[in-house]
Amino acid sequence: MALLQITEPGKAVDPQLRKRAAGIDLGTTNSLIASVCAGVAKTLPDQNGDYMLPSAVRYLADTLIVGAEAQQSAAEDPLNTILSVKRMMGRGIDDLSRFGNRLPYEFVPSDAGMPRIRTVSGDWSPVNVSAEILKTLVARATETLSGDLDGVVITVPAYFDDAQRQATRDAARLAGVEVLRLLNEPTAAAIAYGLDSGEEGVIAVYDLGGGTFDISLLRLQKGVLEVLATGGNSALGGDDFDQVLAEWLIDASGYTKQLSHAQLRAVLMQARSIKEQLSSNSEVDIDIIERKFSYQGSITRDTFNQLIEPLVEESIKACRRAVRDAGLALTDISNLVLVGGSTRVPCVVSEVEAFFGISALDGIDPDRVVAIGAAIQANILVGNRADDEMLLLDVLPLSLGLETVGGLAEKVIPRNTAIPAAKTQEFTTYAEGQTAMLIHVVQGERELVEDCRSLARFELTGIPPMTAGAARIEVLFQVDADGLLSVSARELSTGTNASVLVKPSYGLSDNEITGMLKASFDYAAEDAAQRSLTEARVEAGRVIEALSNALDADGEALLKANDIKLLRDAIQTLERLISGTDYKAINEGTERLGMASEDFAGLRMDLAIRRALAGRRIGEVDQDFEQDSNKSRYR
Ligand code: ADP
Ligand code: MG
Q1: To 10 degrees, what angle do helices 238-253 and 301-325 make?
Q2: Which residue range forms the structural domain that includes residue 465?
Q3: Are residues 530 and 505 in the same domain?
Q4: Contact assessment for residue 438 and residue 463, using Cβ atoms and an 8 Å cutoff
Q5: Which residues contact 194 (CB under 8 A, 6 or more apart)?
Q6: Does residue 471 form part of some domain?
Q7: Most buried of 61, 72, 130, 411, CB within 10 angstroms?
């Protein structure tokens, strides 16, 4: 019998047994693939020596092109050339229409509201398009490493939600690769610098790419890297630098006519090249002739710095917010990692370093650092470094919870909780004899369900009929390492259960997470007041209903007519309070009604005991007046 082999800790695995693993940075603008060869993580170049693959796919009648050539055809063939597909991953067609004219494609709806893009060769979903980019990268790796890959790690932004992560996994499945794990981009960057085995502390990862800006704060503690907070702006990046520089060029040229779409594209391409040259030269000569548009002159780095200053400042503001959000002081941050091609711009580096008050780590190209970290992680996960035990924790960008009575959102797992995470919470029934419960899973920070995002609904049926508040329903929320959520509900006395895996067809629309977080701060006071009022009304309604039922059942048998009238009047008084908006008055009214009915409750208890002694089951004893305030919430 063959024995399983285990290497000595710290020793390299026998080359014969080495598995082929790669890390993929599937970027909005550029994508890369990297692998650990002879102990060193390297990005793999294509036949021309280019390691960056522009994330562009051009569909032709019976073939397709991926990369630089596709990117260059964007101006002449915009409908069939798909750029920045990452922005569309996991998004519904409604979300995409909100992108407005930034997406020049023709969308056709398909099943489950997922959009497809109409091209000459057919209708393709964003997942299909991403799969083409992945296939191209994987083919590059297969060739370089002379064999099929055993597994890959693909990076995603830390804020990607379930739908966006699922869409990324789907793209990998279509591309025929085994995903070992989805890894957050900032975490990958920290790993590339070896910070996961460095000193404990907080790491800021500033990622300014082509079209997006992300700031992430990670904490390394006891060998675990945890994302503390994320922030950023999904519409800020190097493309905006190109835009302001193109406007400057058009101004400087004195060209007054409206530029055609093709001319504008061409000027933007020129601007991009000038911008990139300005990262290593303090002045660049310009000589542009694009059809009728022409400009000869030069631009200095100082002028360019002034043009982009408001954009850089915008990113610094987001950093400030993230630091505050994580409850940190700037002095808590011990390492700064720069990621993304746009951090090659010198004034970006100096402003970010000035803000954090520390120098950025260097040594790895900012546009390769994510792929390199992913490759290191893939190498470990595939088993090539058996000695390494690296546990990575990521974080939930938004709180997950359930709808409770009155349309309130009850948070089960709060935002910024490290994942994988699991949490149970007990709920109970609201109505007499309720046998089914609608579990409505929501995401967001606001107190009212209508202000949160609905993720899924499912029903738990087969709850045995009991008095309100007697059934015990345990709801389990589980978020796996990739951020996918499963929710299950179980009625404890019978074990009947129901569950749902949340793979919503709709992702969050652009900027929505930032918007949702901002709203939760803006409306915090209002929300808290609304919650107090709703809770007061729900509790008052419950007490009224229980007392009315009890009066109907046993009032005449146990009370004098005058006492019944007093209690009925007290109910009416509380009903009037409920229609007002003073939650304190409602709570006081509820308490008064509870006290006024105490004697009646006692009499009923005696009656129930007498009945039980007369051969009736004790289970029929009413618990209408149970007032345990620690009791879980009513649904
Ligand atoms: P993404 O993460 O969005 O895929 P990248 O990290 O590859 O993007 O960054 C792409 C952006 O970086 C582009 O706007 C590109 O112009 C810019 N960029 C690349 N090299 C340089 C450079 N030397 N100087 C300034 N900007 C650069
Ligand atoms: Mg990137």
Answers
A1: 150
A2: 400-510
A3: no
A4: no
A5: none
A6: yes
A7: 130
pLDDT digits (tens, 9 = 90+) for 183-194: 999 999 999 998
CA separation (Å) from 533 to 408, 430, 448, 521, 530? 11, 18, 12, 19, 5
- The CATH number covering residue 590 comes to 1.20.1270.10
Residue 90 lies in a domain: no
Q: How far is the CA of 344 from the centre of ligand 1 (A)?
A: 8
Q: What angle do CA 573, 579, 582 make, to 5 degrees?
A: 90
Count of structural domains within the chain: 3
Query: pLDDT tens, 398-452?
Result: 788 998 888 888 889 887 777 778 888 888 888 888 888 888 988 888 888 888 8
Whole-prediction pTM value?
Answer: 0.64
Query: What are the tens digits of pLDDT across the range 332-381?
Result: 999 999 999 999 999 999 999 999 999 999 999 999 999 999 999 999 88
For position 629, what pLDDT does the model report?
Answer: 33
Q: How far is the CA of 234 from the centre of ligand 2 (A)?
A: 12
Residue-level pLDDT at 39: 84
The residues, ordered by sequence, that sit 6+ positions from 427 with a Cβ below 8 Å of its Cβ are 402, 404, 437, 473, 474, 475, 632, 633, 634, 635
Ligand 1 pocket test, pick from 26, 28, 29, 71 with the greatest ligand atom count within 8 Å of Cβ, gives 29
> Taken in order 482, 496, 457, 114, is the CA torsion positive or negative?
positive
Strand extents, DSSP E, 136-261: 151-156, 179-184, 201-208, 213-221, 224-233
- Cα(484)–Cα(565) distance, rounded to whole angstroms? 56
In a domain, 66, yes or no: no
pLDDT of residue 223: 67
Q: Could you identify the atom of ligand 1 that is nearest to the CA of residue 280?
A: 23
Q: How many angstroms separate the CA atoms of 572 and 472, rounded?
A: 31
Secondary structure percentages of the chain, helix, strand, coil, to 5: 40, 25, 35
Percent of the chain with pLDDT over 90: 41
Residues known to be catalytic:
25, 86, 185, 207
Q: Tokens at residue 501, please? A: 């895996």
Please state, in angstroms and rounded to a whole number, the distance separating the CA atoms of residues 635 and 633: 7
Which atom of ligand 1 approaches the CA of 366 most closely?
Answer: 6
Select from 288, 306, 324 the last residue of a domain.
Answer: 306
The per-residue pLDDT of the chain, averaged, comes to: 84
> 572 pLDDT exceeds 60?
yes
Determine the angle formed by the axes of helices 185-192 and 369-381, rounding to 10 degrees. 80
Query: Alpha-carbon distance 43 to 89, whole Å?
Result: 25
- Residue-wise pLDDT for 266-285, tens only, equals 899 899 999 999 999 999 99
- With respect to residue 254, please indicate whether it lies within any of the assigned structural domains: yes
